[in-house]
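Retro notes, item 3 of 5
We never archived the inputs for the adenosine-5'-triphosphate complex last cycle. Fixing that now. Sequence and ligand:
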Amino acid sequence: MATSSRKSAFHAMRRLLPFLRPYRFWVVLKLLITVATAANDIFMVYVINVLVNSSLSGNKEELLQAIFLMAASVAAGFVMGFAGVYASGRFSAYAVRDMKHTFSDHIDKLPVSYTETRHTGDFSSRMTTGVNAIENFLNGDFTSILFHIFRISVCIVLMLVMNWQLTLLCMVIIALTGMLTGFINRPLFEYSSKLQQSLAKTNADVQDAIGGIHIVKSYGLVQTLYRKFNTLLEQVLANSLAIEKRSAALGAVSVFVNMAPFLLFFLFGGYLVINDQLSVGALLAFAQFINYLVSGLSDLPNQWSHYKTTAGVAEHLFELLDEKTERTDGGKPVVSPSAPALAFAHVSFSYDGRKRVLEDVSFSLPQGKTVALVGSSGSGKSTVFKLIAGFYEHEEGTVKLFGESLSDWSLTAARTAIALVSQETFLYPGSIAENIACGKDGIGMDEIARAAKLANIDDFIRSLPEGYHTHVGERGVRLSGGQRQRISIARAILKDAPILLLDEATSALDSDSERLVQEAINRMMKEKTVLVVAHRLSTVIEADEIIVLDNGRIVENGTHTELLSRNGAYKRLYNNQFVQQESPMERLERGEDIRWRPAINH
Ligand SMILES: Nc1ncnc2c1ncn2[C@@H]1O[C@H](COP(=O)(O)OP(=O)(O)OP(=O)(O)O)[C@@H](O)[C@H]1O
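Structure as it came back at the time:
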């Protein structure tokens, strides 16, 4: 078990190497400096030894030499300190930058099937906490472990050479005091991990409460949450107090633990000096070696645990790089002008490989026509869109774009042929103009404004103080649902893809906003081939064909009038869903008599 965890920690760390390779000069420099710094520390001890002995014996020449060597050692330590920090700072910053590039590039290429099933927090925590932990490790503990191991080893060898009995005595004392500290420390770890857990819980609760502040306020949940929060705070307080009590005890004990080796050492060492078995300089050098040993041995477990934690974090992070990316094969086939823009033939699909959410679906969408997909919630309408956009691969049957199988298209080419307008409007941090251009190169402001005009949003944008350069997003302008929708419609208009995949909004907008959005959609639909998930009666009535999905199967298809006359699934949907959503104005426009008549009992 232990071997396998060591192996996996080693394996995870090995995966950092490719990121360090381009900066190997700085890595090697840092390693050399680390060893040289440890050697310099030991050299300094030697110099102190000479300094003390020469002062006591009155050897001026040796004393001056020792002072000169000490100054040289201090100067070397100064230069190495600077160069070491600079070197590790440099390679860790560059390696982390490259790592972030690699990860974000890989995340971009991951299939939607992967990202849809993961919490967004998972990606961000891997990219922030994970990468930061690696950066800290590279910047610090990476070489500290080497430093201590090297310095401790040399110290022990020199101590054994100087006086092996005194060395053994020191080792036994250090081992005993180490065990004592560990014994006192252990419960402290437990309390501090409990404290971390309760703190994490309070943070999560606060985040949840703030995230859902509208619901919290409107349902009067404040008092309930307040009580829960208070209980958590009491737990945090209890754990903090327990830690403080232990820390106070540990502080007192640590004075003894730190002094004990020296007391016993000087007792025995002094005896050796009196009996001329050890020089005073050697005694002081010994004391300094013990100091190095104690500080190294107390630091190493921490650094080792940082190493293991970082290895765990790195493992978790690198798992992302092992995930298969979207396919990159296929090209841009030469399309036939007469072929249907889109055709499904006997397509079946399941998300989990067991339950089919589409079953033997076949339909065709001729160029320039509009097909409406209707069906109850969960019937598979959005899944059809996801297959067309190549977010998921269908299991059976064929999907063709302009007569060519989707698998012969590269995903980029297929997605260029499609403009997707979904209910979820995604605006990224940037200006309104950037959001409309949506990464399209070489787009002039006049084209952006033309698309915005068609989308009924130009006037609103111009009324903003910074117009098209207004920033949207976290710290940008707040936009209403309708305004966001119209910006995403402008984006689709500018994209000018031959096929429009439109998921009509179900959420109600106020009537003005609704009219503006609807006008924009109608303009966009003109002269395009449209597959629309329809929620509005006017859309289904005007569609060239309506496809009714039920539990992933096509149960009916035809025009509005044909389907109504069949008295089947569409008729039921029509009565339950579409008619209810219509406003009185729309019903009047359709010529329906909506005057209220008193009920007459015959
Ligand atoms: N990522 C997913 N993983 C697993 N199952 C999914 C996933 N997305 C959708 N489903 C399931 O597939 C079925 C069809 O879902 P889909 O979203 O296509 O329905 P829909 O007709 O668009 O529904 P709505 O009108 O509510 O948007 C549902 O049973 C749904 O639970």
